[in-house]
Specification:
With about 90 residues, this protein is mainly β. The protein has no helices and six strands. It starts with a strand and ends with a strand.
Length: about 90
Amino acid sequence: LFDKFSTCIGISQLSSDARCGISSGDARFRVLGDDEVLHDWEVKSFPELSTCFEVDITDIDILVLETDLNGSRDCDLSTWADAKVYKRG
């Protein structure tokens, strides 16, 4: 059905806590397909810009997006933005 997965990952800001996404927050992200690593752990911290990537999901039945606290729970507002699966062309 689909052969590509794409997304952008990062740490979001929280309006009720000015530190979050500005001076505090980190998380890590990973993509699995049928229990195999398609995109290994990538750490995002404040105030890094988001990172966008795509992975091949040809013949993948189960796609799993994982997010981990990467230690501290402080301001870990992990965001998978514009996540989508699609067919080339």
